[in-house]
Amino acid sequence: MASSSITDFYAGRNVFITGATGFVGVTIVEKLLRDVPKVGNLYLLMRAKKGKSVEERLEELKKNSVFDRFKEMQLESRLTKIVPIEGDVGLDNLGISPKDRQTLIDNVNVVFHSAATLDFFQSLKETTNINLKGTRRVVELCQQLKQLDSLVHVSSAYVNAYLTEVEEKLYPSPDDPEKIIQLAETLNDEALKALEKKLLKDHPNTYTFTKHLAEHEVANAASSFPCGIVRPSMITAAWKEPIPGWTISKNGPQGFFMGASKGVLRRLPLDPSIIMDYIPIDVVVNGIITTGYYVNALKAKNAGRPAELQIFHLTSSTYKPFRFDLMADKINSYLHDYPLNSAVWYPNLRLVKSLWVFRLSAILFHFVPAFFLDIVTRISGGRPILMRLHKNVWNSLNTLERFIFTEWHFDSKRLLALSKSMDVVDRKKFVIDIGELTWDEYFSNTIRGVRQYLSKESPKNLEKARRKDKILLGLHVALQLLFWFGIFKLIVWISGVSSAKAALILPVFYYLFGLL
Fold it and tell me: Which residues have C-beta within 8 Å of that of residue 47, sequence separation ≥ 6?
């Protein structure tokens, strides 16, 4: 078998991972265990919560669908390399016991810091503690590690969201981190909220603001040990690995495909002509692992001294741009290729360019059906949630508008140069160049993955779901005919015109409804 520089680098090295139970973290674990058989121990920072110990949470982690292919390959014995470390990036010293901390100090060689709070609506107090101070705590641990070869910090392409043209470089800090930490620690949430707009300046939310500050925590340590920062954009389902279309994340397109396939999400505020920067999870993970190797290799070339901080964009906007214009007419066909047996109505998703038009259409196509479906759910003994879900979307629109209708261009020349510098084996095993990605095929796989991994519907019931989809189509058409017949009769009754004249007026109403 041909040699792999990256695989050879990680062989025998122990890796410490924060955020290991998240979308990125658990995929890193699977990739390392599957493709780097001689990797050392993987120390995962985990919280004990909901009355479960970290050992119990680890057993739950091992049941994650990310390991489905892993288990088919009969690699379960490698799961013994996982070592849970009880802790929390939001606590002093990461909440790690002195004994466990010493274990890390003596053994860890590579650190992947992916833990963060991703909530755009989180208070500045909380995001400062998790994103900023949490990163500082990880860096402080790294400074104590006896055999540290590299630190990779998972940031976000949107840390510079106040710019629409962004390069792979460190931009000036938006504020003094010490001042922000002091304010977060001394002021209550109400007082901090009053200062928030002034502090954030051009940043759209506390998430991008604190993640930007966190990059400078890593930059401050870059002269002490090899450091790299990766900035993924919107992380989406797997392109190739571990299984095409695999996902456990409901963020971004996966979330609205899930709602659309149920038949409850029928309108989406989105301009199909705008570039949406999506990047598959496996490309992100490959970028993280490759960066860990690369920054250490630079140190070796630099006479044993850490090179300058390396920053890479894991993005698609300037290299493989995607617009929904490319497949707006295909989304619904994909939804009907892989329908849900649990669908409550016939899927039919439309993209709406205007936020106020979306609000108007949401009343008719979301809230009215949700009201009646929740009544049916309540009568049948279920838990009505649709009205609440649609209200949450409605209330978040103003905050999310900037991300929905802004086009960013994230330069990725350095990442592509890194890919070209890799040997042939590594380029195939740790793919970070998305040049061969075909968006049509990718989103078809994504919708199939959403069906299986988010909606928990087995491929075995697909034919049954397709039969139900045809029945729902018949009901959908029947309801539309009934609706327009009702509108026709209403025109006759209100205006007093003849049926012939009402028939001429009806297309006007049909056109107006078609705008929603």
Answer: 54, 57, 86, 87, 88, 95
